[in-house]
Amino acid sequence: MEVYGTKPPRFTKEWWEYFWDYYKWHTIGTVIVLIIIVTTIVDSVNKVKYDLSTTFIAPIILTEETEQALTNLMEDNIDDASGNKKNEAFLTYLNMSDNSDPQYMQAMQTKLMIELGYSESFVYILSKQYADLFEGGEGVLIPASDWTSKESYDGSFVSLNGNRYLEDLGLDTSDLYLAVRDTRKDEKDDKFCIEKQKNGVKFAKFLIN
């Protein structure tokens, strides 16, 4: 530690005053850095590693009960990808129903673009108009023929019209489609992502069969 002026005996009242006068900003900066490091570590330790994430995008209102029921359906039909001996799934829901608040709709459009381009979800349940935004899904979505023999729309999307699991949850399925995302370049060697994608395929197969 660099010494400024005459340094009093350590840990005396004068020393603390001296320390604070000359090293106040060093101390504050160090404390802030430590807080950031500790917070990051805690967040990393406590962050749930979901075995499957699914995105639901449609002009349909989901109640909290319906969201939870759909999440439970996912968890009951996937494997433990993280190795924590629990099946944990996460549902991202974008309510695209018409809203008189332009700020809300703008926020939903922003979230939509993020979900389509950067989401950790491997399963998409969405209305046709949002399926069209994938532009066929080439290089983004798995060809539907890789995981089902059912007829697909645009090569990647399978209709959920009349799906009994979703209709049992009270959902209008007439304009809903299902797709599974491919792994991105930065995920190709990530074993956890590979297992999550397998869960995506497993859940998709369950849902349509």
Overall description:
This protein is of the alpha/beta class. The chain contains 6 helices and 6 strands, in the order αβαβαβαββαβα. Strands 2-1-3-6-5-4 form a 6-stranded mixed beta sheet, sandwiched between helices. The termini are far apart. The model has no long low-confidence stretch (mean pLDDT 85).
Quick rundown:
This protein has 6 helices and 6 strands; from the N terminus they run H-E-H-E-H-E-H-E-E-H-E-H.
Q: Which strand order do you get reading across the main beta sheet?
A: 2-1-3-6-5-4
Which structural class do you get from the secondary structure elements? alpha/beta
Query: Largest beta sheet, briefly?
Result: 6 strands, mixed
Could you estimate the helical fraction of the residues in percent?
Answer: 40-55%
Provide mean pLDDT, rounded: 85
Overall body shape:
elongated
Low-pLDDT sequence parts:
none
Computed CA radius of gyration, to the nearest angstrom: 25 Å
| Helical segment count | 6
Question: What descriptors fit this protein?
Answer:
alpha/beta, 209 residues, 43% helix
Secondary structure blueprint with pairings:
Elements: H1 13-46, E1 52-58, H2 64-75, E2 89-95, H3 102-118, E3 123-127, H4 128-131, E4 152-153, E5 157-159, H5 164-168, E6 176-180, H6 191-208
Parallel strand pairs: 1-2, 1-3
Antiparallel strand pairs: 3-6, 4-5, 5-6
